[in-house]
Amino acid sequence: METSCSSHMEGPASPETHVFFVVNPMSKGGSAGKKWPPLFADLQGIILRGEGTARCCLRVWTLETSGPGDATQLVRQKLREYADPQFQPAASLVVMVAVGGDGTINEVANGFFHPVVDLLGPPEELGRLICNRSAMACFNFGTGGDFTKTVPCPQDMEELYEMLAEQDPTLMVDVGLCTFVPLDSEEVTDCYYTMCREGECDFEKSKARAPESRYFVNVATAGMAAETCFQAEKVKGCCCGGKIAYYWAIVKSLYHFRNKDLLVKLDGGEPRLLEQVSCFSCGNGCYFGDGLPVCPSANPIDGKLTTTVWTKARVRDFIFNTRAMYSGDHVKADTTVVMEGKKFEVSSQREENLCLVEADGEILGRLPATYQVLPERLPILTPALHKLLQKFQGGVDRSESSLRQGEGYESSSSWSSSSCHT
């Protein structure tokens, strides 16, 4: 639902940028819905004060979501309008700003692409932008905000205005695609409690369902991390903040979770058996759980996914090695496996050992699942563009193509073949 009107800065012969703020009013325990209107009014005032000095003409709107999946539909609908040649309000750039947490960022990012309705179609169709004159930005208003720890976002309205008004090139980041067996909310709850008590469960309904897919920009996981998301949602915004909520959820999940034996196929190679897996994390970004660098070497512009696999995890290991977990040194442990590649196919060795799958903090379904990277798919505006390029371009040979000007853009194996170490 569109909840407020536009603010227009006139400028002769200036390119026009249309900005839609997609606000999740329930983010951060509902504080986003209360705090965003005065912040938006501040931004409108900044735009008016900057009239005549900016490099572009800004028009801004707020779109408020009303439930899960709504942000994807709102963004997709707007971008289809701008992609229609019959649509009159032309703009050199259309920016969709996710105002919320990682879940909102995920939904907004999914709205940039055509839905994946045919997984057997040509690979080049995956991750095809709806509107070539579009870009995404973030304004963190969530509990974790983990994607914005990898790709920073503006911290206040002044910095947000400068980023939008300067018309800097956008960063073309990679996007992950997770394909999974879907579960409804009741099945997710039953799955969690059955696995905690017995370690096995069997859902005949889900076996008959066709696989579904979801784009992700940050981290997608299977196993204990999905259980952690289930637990964290029960305490976030109620009695404690994000980091404490995630820490408590990890400890509780470790106490209950039963490790799984997983079969992992990397880049079409032979399946490899990983025994006693606690958590399988596939990162395009580095962080999850409000700042835990689960995939510290992940690079969102290198055309690969970085996977961290924790095995034989125990409660006391996490408690006594918290510093190593939050510093990224956990990847040096003997019980950790780190891999890099373009595509991971993951399944439970025993079908009855059902394992939940999540992406960007949202539980999606269960294994078997496929995680693959789609290089240079999503244009993102960030105030730290040049710092990011310096940080991530070491060893990346496509630095020039990782940048895109906002105006006039048109989109154009085996284990040994990929990096793997334990």
Q: Which structural class do the helices and strands define?
A: alpha+beta
Amino- and carboxy-terminal Cα gap: 49 Å
Helix share of residues?
25-40%
Strand content: 25-35%
Spans where pLDDT lies below 50 across 5 or more residues: 3-13, 195-200, 406-422
User: What string, H for helix and E for strand, traces the elements in order?
Assistant: EEHEHEHEHHEHHEEHHEEEHHEEEEHEE
Question: How many strands, which pairing sense, and closed or not: the largest β-sheet?
Answer: 6 strands, antiparallel, barrel
- Nearest-integer average pLDDT: 81
Cα Rg? 21 Å
Shape: globular
Q: Helix count?
A: 12
Strands in their spatial order, largest beta sheet: 8-10-9-13-15-14
Number of strands: 17
Characterise this structure:
This protein is an alpha+beta fold. Helices cover 29% and strands 30% of the residues. It is built from twelve helices and 17 strands. Strands 8-10-9-13-15-14 form a six-stranded antiparallel β-barrel.
What characteristics describe this protein?
17 strands; alpha+beta; 12 helices; five-stranded mixed β-sheet; disordered N terminus; six-stranded antiparallel beta barrel; 422 residues; disordered C terminus
Task: Summarize the SSE layout with pairings.
Elements: E1 2-8, E2 16-23, H1 31-49, E3 57-64, H2 70-83, E4 93-100, H3 102-111, E5 134-140, H4 147-150, H5 157-166, E6 170-182, H6 185-197, H7 204-207, E7 212-216, E8 219-223, H8 224-235, H9 242-256, E9 260-266, E10 272-283, E11 305-311, H10 315-320, H11 322-327, E12 336-341, E13 343-348, E14 356-359, E15 362-380, H12 385-392, E16 403-404, E17 420-421
Helix pairs in contact: 1-5, 2-3, 8-9
